[in-house]
Design goal:
This is DUF4349 domain-containing protein. Keywords: Membrane, Transmembrane, Transmembrane helix. This protein is α/β, with parallel strands linked by helices and 346 residues long. It has two domains: 198 residues, no CATH class; 120 residues. It is 60% helix and 15% strand. It contains ten helices and six strands, in the order H-E-H-H-E-H-E-E-H-E-H-H-E-H-H-H. Strands 1-5-2-6-4-3 form a six-stranded mixed beta sheet. Helix 1 packs antiparallel against helix 9 and helix 6 packs antiparallel against helix 7. It is rod-shaped. The two termini are 28 Å apart.
Length: 346
Amino acid sequence: MPSNDRPRRPWLTIGLALLAAITFLMVSDRSDGVIQPMRGYGVSDSTSVQPSKGMESGAQGTPAATRVVAPDYYPYPYPGTNVSITDTREFLKMSYQATMRTRSVQELTRRAETTIRGFSGRVDQISSSEKYGYVSFVVPASKFSAFRDEIESFVAPRFLKVNISSQNLLPQKVSIEEQQKGVEKNLVDLQAQRKATVAAHDSKVKSLQAEINANASAQAVLRAEVTSDPARQAAIAAQLSQLAVDLVQLKSRLTNENSNYANNIASIDAQLTYANEVLAAVKTQDQNLIDNVATVDGTISLEWISLWEIAQLYLPGYWIPSILAVAAVLAYLWERRRHPRVAREI
């Protein structure tokens, strides 16, 4: 029988070389020819500060390692209120954002919903599909640390991106306190004005009433006087006529005083009512701020991840095609040693 001396094809080498080429093209397509690692996964904490012009202009020159841990945005503090540097109070409002890559999107979405309610939280929005999930929520700040540990245990750190931002609501608090002081001062002024108005009115009424009483007494005395002297009778009649005119004027002044007093008191009382309503609204606003600080709002986004993307997370960039290429070379050398005629095939 003729001997089978056909050369042996190095299938292992060819397979590894093809895989190296395919993965190289896949990585090149994803990075557009630039080697890029999987960015953004990890933990990012930020506290709200107002960025200066130098911060904005220097962002492009920041080293890449620094940019990875920087927050995605710089929230601006509450405008319009200058807070003294000596005021060191903190009313931190925290926001939490977690993005998870998983192959069990719907299962983890249900777990997130259950966990939120288990920590006395509230689910505001939830959506779930085969490849995407989303949950927005609010949890008490006192339970946030334990809640965060539980949520972040759903996946390995490599598949988790967390962004935590904290904003000090001190400017809002100071603004509310200034409003409250202004309203309370206005209330004190209005109450003092009302008291002064009442006192002035009482004094005026007392004075006018005394004049009216004196006028009435004078008229009574003149009417009681009996005389047969024509000149005296004429004088009495003239005095009575003048006193009657004066009495009408005094009563008119008293009526006007009472009317003006009623209008002034009604105006002051209306201002007091409005000021009390404003004060109640300011106190409600202050309580709302305290309640807001006492909670942490956040979102959890879940994205389906393929096996290739998992491999890319562990071996980013061109590591996979490089390893396959090295494996192909080693396989070629091994097959060449075992089958010397392999070299002629390649």
